[in-house]
Write a structure and sequence with these properties.
By secondary structure, the chain is mainly α. The protein contains 3 helices and 2 strands, in the order H-E-E-H-H. Helix 1 runs antiparallel to helix 2. It is elongated, with a radius of gyration of 20 Å.
Protein backbone atom coordinates (compact mmCIF):
# COMPACT_ATOMS: atom_id res chain seq x y z
CA UNK A 1 0.00 0.00 0.00
CA UNK A 2 1.29 3.45 -0.92
CA UNK A 3 2.11 5.84 1.88
CA UNK A 4 -0.10 8.87 2.40
CA UNK A 5 1.21 12.26 3.41
CA UNK A 6 -0.50 15.08 5.27
CA UNK A 7 0.78 18.02 3.27
CA UNK A 8 0.10 21.46 4.74
CA UNK A 9 -2.47 23.50 2.83
CA UNK A 10 0.04 26.22 1.88
CA UNK A 11 2.38 23.61 0.37
CA UNK A 12 -0.51 22.09 -1.61
CA UNK A 13 -1.57 25.55 -2.78
CA UNK A 14 1.99 26.40 -3.81
CA UNK A 15 2.34 23.16 -5.78
CA UNK A 16 -1.02 23.73 -7.48
CA UNK A 17 -0.08 27.29 -8.44
CA UNK A 18 3.26 26.00 -9.73
CA UNK A 19 1.40 23.56 -11.99
CA UNK A 20 -0.84 26.38 -13.24
CA UNK A 21 2.02 28.81 -13.89
CA UNK A 22 3.99 26.15 -15.77
CA UNK A 23 0.95 25.27 -17.89
CA UNK A 24 0.35 28.95 -18.66
CA UNK A 25 4.02 29.46 -19.58
CA UNK A 26 4.07 26.40 -21.86
CA UNK A 27 0.87 27.56 -23.56
CA UNK A 28 2.29 31.05 -24.09
CA UNK A 29 5.59 29.74 -25.48
CA UNK A 30 3.73 27.51 -27.95
CA UNK A 31 1.86 30.54 -29.31
CA UNK A 32 4.90 32.81 -29.62
CA UNK A 33 7.26 32.87 -32.62
CA UNK A 34 10.14 30.39 -32.39
CA UNK A 35 12.76 33.14 -31.97
CA UNK A 36 12.81 35.97 -29.45
CA UNK A 37 14.71 38.18 -31.89
CA UNK A 38 13.59 38.69 -35.51
CA UNK A 39 15.35 36.09 -37.68
CA UNK A 40 15.13 34.84 -41.24
CA UNK A 41 13.67 31.44 -41.86
CA UNK A 42 15.90 28.48 -42.74
CA UNK A 43 15.84 24.94 -44.00
CA UNK A 44 18.45 22.25 -43.33
CA UNK A 45 18.14 19.05 -45.32
CA UNK A 46 21.66 17.76 -44.60
CA UNK A 47 21.01 16.37 -41.12
CA UNK A 48 19.38 13.02 -40.35
CA UNK A 49 16.01 14.77 -40.20
CA UNK A 50 14.84 17.83 -42.04
CA UNK A 51 14.73 21.03 -39.97
CA UNK A 52 12.74 24.01 -41.17
CA UNK A 53 11.76 27.25 -39.50
CA UNK A 54 9.76 30.09 -41.04
CA UNK A 55 10.91 33.67 -40.63
CA UNK A 56 10.34 34.90 -37.10
CA UNK A 57 9.14 38.42 -36.39
CA UNK A 58 10.49 38.06 -32.85
CA UNK A 59 8.66 38.74 -29.61
CA UNK A 60 7.19 42.10 -28.72
CA UNK A 61 8.36 43.80 -25.52
CA UNK A 62 5.00 42.90 -23.94
CA UNK A 63 5.44 39.23 -24.85
CA UNK A 64 8.97 39.23 -23.45
CA UNK A 65 7.70 40.81 -20.23
CA UNK A 66 4.91 38.21 -19.96
CA UNK A 67 7.37 35.34 -20.35
CA UNK A 68 9.78 36.85 -17.83
CA UNK A 69 6.96 37.45 -15.32
CA UNK A 70 5.81 33.83 -15.59
CA UNK A 71 9.36 32.48 -15.37
CA UNK A 72 10.05 34.58 -12.27
CA UNK A 73 6.85 33.37 -10.60
CA UNK A 74 7.75 29.79 -11.55
CA UNK A 75 11.15 30.21 -9.85
CA UNK A 76 9.58 31.70 -6.72
CA UNK A 77 7.08 28.86 -6.43
CA UNK A 78 9.70 26.19 -7.12
CA UNK A 79 11.85 27.57 -4.29
CA UNK A 80 8.82 27.80 -1.98
CA UNK A 81 7.79 24.20 -2.65
CA UNK A 82 11.25 22.64 -2.48
CA UNK A 83 12.37 24.58 0.60
CA UNK A 84 9.10 24.35 2.55
CA UNK A 85 9.49 23.60 6.27
CA UNK A 86 7.39 20.45 5.81
CA UNK A 87 10.32 18.62 4.19
CA UNK A 88 12.28 18.77 7.46
CA UNK A 89 9.59 16.53 9.00
CA UNK A 90 9.90 13.83 6.32
CA UNK A 91 12.60 11.21 6.82
CA UNK A 92 15.25 10.99 4.12
CA UNK A 93 14.12 7.61 2.73
CA UNK A 94 10.56 8.95 2.28
CA UNK A 95 11.39 12.33 0.75
CA UNK A 96 11.49 11.20 -2.87
CA UNK A 97 8.14 9.42 -2.59
CA UNK A 98 6.61 12.33 -0.69
CA UNK A 99 7.75 14.85 -3.29
CA UNK A 100 6.37 12.67 -6.08
CA UNK A 101 3.07 12.35 -4.20
CA UNK A 102 2.88 16.13 -3.81
CA UNK A 103 3.22 16.63 -7.57
CA UNK A 104 0.12 14.48 -8.08
CA UNK A 105 -1.84 15.71 -5.06
CA UNK A 106 -3.46 18.68 -6.79
CA UNK A 107 -7.20 18.64 -6.53
CA UNK A 108 -7.07 16.36 -3.49
CA UNK A 109 -8.34 17.78 -0.20
CA UNK A 110 -5.65 18.27 2.45
CA UNK A 111 -5.39 15.62 5.10
CA UNK A 112 -6.60 16.06 8.67
CA UNK A 113 -4.59 18.41 10.87
CA UNK A 114 -1.82 16.76 12.94
Amino acid sequence: MAATYDFPSDLLAGQEELHQVRAELIDLLKRLPWSVEPLDGFSDETSWRRVERPASPGWTPDEQAQVEKLRERERELAVFVTCHRYWAEVTAPDQVNARAALKHAHGAPPGPPP
